Amino acid sequence: MSPFHLACPETAARETRSVIVGPGPVLPASEYAYVEFYCPDPGCDCRRVFIEVFSSDLPQTVLASINFGWERERFYRRKMPYDPEASRQITRGCLDPINKQSEYAPLLLSLFQDIVADEPYRLRLKRHYRQFKQHVNSRAAEGSVGDPAAPKA
């Protein structure tokens, strides 16, 4: 997965979703940014995003890693027939089982599911995915080597 902000820095600067949480008993008061990553394989059409959540107080620490897909469950069922629960999990958003999660990850996932992933944000992710894939495909057509999401020199 490659960061959206390297491929489309202006869009990412304007449109990265963040949530400000005030003092409370559950999450520390902070601004939490949901940073998008997409698949850099030009031939892949997975239609999903990998999101890392960072706090403004700990900008170098990933607090949660979330998988999310905006299509209907049947799309992901076809892509992942080996796991009957995967399509439901990805369309709701789920913690990535491969990456380390902080103690706050379940809460940040709930915040994502209940507030962050509203319909306008889902449409934004879909648009970002298309922008990212256009960038990757144009880099591939140019015969670029290295990370296809890296900005053009």
Q: Radius of gyration, Cα only, in angstroms?
A: 16 Å
How far apart the termini lie comes to: 20 Å
Percentage of helical residues?
A: 25-40%
Global outline? globular
Number of strands: 6
Description:
The chain is α+β, with helices and mostly antiparallel strands. The protein has one domain. The chain has six helices and six strands. Strands 1, 2, 3, 4, 5 and 6 form a six-stranded antiparallel sheet that branches. Helix 3 (73-79) packs across helix 4 (86-92). 28% of the residues are buried. The mean pLDDT is 92.
Search tags:
alpha+beta; six-stranded antiparallel beta sheet; 6 helices; about 150 residues; 6 strands
Summarize the entry for a quick read.
This protein is α+β, with helices and mostly antiparallel strands and 153 residues long. Helices cover 39% and strands 21% of the residues. The longest helix has 23 residues, at 119-141.
Blueprint of the fold:
Layout (H helix, E strand, L loop, with lengths): L1 E2 H4 L1 H7 L1 E5 L8 E9 L9 E8 L8 E6 L3 H7 L6 H7 L1 E2 L9 H12 L2 H23 L12
Antiparallel strand pairs: 1-3, 2-3, 3-4, 4-5, 5-6
